[in-house]
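Input:
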Amino acid sequence: MVPITVRSLNGTRKEEFAATIRAVAAEVAAAHADEVDRDARFPHEAIDALRETQALSALVPRSLGGGGVPLGAIAQACHDLARGCSATAMVFAMHQIQVGTIVRHLEPGSWFETYLHELQADQRLIASATSEIGTGGDMGRSIAAVTPAREGRFTLEKQAPTVSYGAHSDDILTTLRRSPEAEQSDQVMVLHRTSETELEPAGGWDTIGMRGTCSPGFVLRAEFGPEQILGARFATMMTETIVPLSHILWSHVWLGIATEAFERGRAFVRAAAKRSRGEPVPAAHQLSRVMAELTMFRSEVGGALAEFIRQSDAPGREPLSTLASVLRFNNLKLAASEQAPRVCQAVLECIGIMAYKNDSPYGVGRQLRDSLSARLMVANERLNAIDAGLLMLAKEV
Amino acid sequence: MTDPIRAQIRQVLADHARLPTDAASLPDGADLFQAGMTSHASVNVMLALEDAFDIEFPDAMLRRSAFESIDAIAAAIGEIALQAA
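Output:
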């Protein structure tokens, strides 16, 4: 592993966290990104480096043993990591969504508080299994159920079509029906140890992009205790945290990917300008249009983050449960997931063949391929279908 | 069950909530989402309620909790009626 000169995060501030993440992104994540992509393998060097700096518990409040790093800095970290390696950034983002869900919805005094201390001490990586075969991509429904077993314990068996980094995780947060008798929409989340889970592979992960997230399907079988069931209603967690936070952190990852592509374009036009001093550089004109789109992209992602933080601070997180808010964060995802590949492709056209080549310093192939996943992870068509219903009800958009 | 507003809500639910159980037998306080109403169906319920009661739910009221039971819906409708009065 590349040695990195970073200090432990304990007791350090936001700026130090940001500097640490940038060092991991540049020195570790970027260094292995091409290999991770080529071999479709897990970015374990970068994730280990993040563990070393205690970044996996950064979002946990200090009162629960974590780093107490504010959400804004976590979002920025997703962006900065994506500059180096999209897969590392997406794994980090998804983990933070799981951590955020637990932190925001645990019951005080519950087992989850003990768990968060353990997360900090062991820098445990949490995956999630929310999608399920047979629900048509609707996270708000489950077929697999919390099933009573011997001695007050429970079991689960779930057919999950994609579990990102499931085989590389320490724990998995899984949605299930509350009981075998419950309706599909009556769901809870269960945190079970990967070491106590049977992961029966169901398909591979040889994809166009985001290859290092290692997200094949699995049949999951696990046993767990009642304390491992997150008590809050899944529907509440989904509205107040999982959906908006996912859209915000994913968008930061996509923005980071697009920014990296843009910066390669900028390096190219600078080199061209130096060669032909005084002469106009046509590629720079094209790139200036890309910059305008990237600027819009950046402000919309930043605006959504600020709004989420503001809405979260309101009593009972009331604004987050309105349909207007659902629309707002769906629209962020729709826009960002279309802008990221558009920026990458526009940069490709500015640079030309030197961006099309994989072995060129100006190559943007990996960024373009990785960004194509954005429209598919929670398919935009599904979000459009939800929005189509809501726009008839919501009065202010 | 003699409450006409709740009876009308129940009719809207029977027509649009696509519950696996009979809406007529649902207790007023029962959680509709636990009873199997999906998010998609809840949107149709809200639209149908606006139509049936000739009202418009303001954005601040358009939240899951306002539609989670027959009682909650009746309270929301009552609140709009008060504002209109």
